[in-house]
Amino acid sequence: MKYFAYGSNCSPAVMARKRVAYRSRSAAKFTGFELQFNKIAFRGYLPSGVGYANLRKQIGAVVEGALYEIVDEDAEVLDRSERFPDHYRRIDVVVETSCGSTVSCVAYQAAANKVGRKLCPTRTYLQHLLAAEDLVTSSYFDKLQQVQVFEGECDRCRLTDEVIFIQTEQQVRQFCSKCHQANPVSGTIRG
């Protein structure tokens, strides 16, 4: 299966963690859509203002990302990781490769009832998109680096700043860059 990733799945490390095997990973761009972070996170440990990547139609816009050839047996694994069909739906898209050829593939777009307003990605989530530096143009990479990330209040010092979530096998911690504390966060890791 050919799959266009524009969010956290741009990172090979994320794909490995999800145990989604692929035969190839290459640069691709999708014209006529723009990248947004308006997919509601729906994870018990994340605050309500956190958003994930999504596609929205926009004439003249371009989304850059990774074109994968997914091993057939892992297509279902990818569907589950994207919470298809409840959270994301599959859409058929045509992307352009770095060679200028076009490829028909699938991408995931958030279901209309899973989209919110005024959401921001966490720094941790955005780092997964930045892991595609080897595939995206320098101007697109620079644009990603400028994305406003989620800011929240530290439970300990009560200052508002960028929030970084650190996930271990058993627990999620919220790291405060002001007081340098990694406070446990309640909620489920699955979601």
Q: Care to describe what's here?
A:
With about 190 residues, this protein is of the alpha+beta class. The protein has 2 domains: about 1-150, Roll (Hypothetical upf0131 protein ytfp); about 150-185, no CATH class. Helices cover about 15% and strands about 45% of the residues. It has helices spanning about 10-15, 75-80, 125-130, 140-145, and strands spanning about 1-5, 20-40, 50-70, 90-95, 100-110, 150-155, 160-165, 170-175, 180-185. The chain has a 5-stranded antiparallel β-sheet with strand order 1-3-2-4-5, with no helix packed on it. Strands 6-7-8-9 form a 4-stranded antiparallel β-sheet, with no helix packed on it. It is globular and about 55 Å long. It starts with a strand and ends in a 6-residue tail after the last strand. Residues about 185-190 have low confidence and may be disordered.
Relevant terms:
five-stranded antiparallel β-sheet; 15% helix; 4 helices; alpha+beta; four-stranded antiparallel β-sheet; disordered C terminus; 191 residues; Hypothetical upf0131 protein ytfp
Distance between the termini: 25 Å
Instruction: Supply Rg.
Output: 17 Å
CATH architecture of the largest domain: Roll
Number of structurally distinct domains: 2
Structural class: alpha+beta
- What are the segments in which pLDDT stays under 50 over at least 5 consecutive residues? 186-191
The 3D shape can be described as: globular
Which secondary structure elements does this structure contain, and how are they paired or packed?
Layout: E1 2-5, H1 12-17, E2 22-40, E3 51-70, H2 75-81, E4 88-97, E5 102-110, H3 123-130, H4 138-145, E6 151-153, E7 160-167, E8 172-176, E9 182-185
Antiparallel strand pairs: 1-3, 2-3, 2-4, 4-5, 6-7, 7-8, 8-9
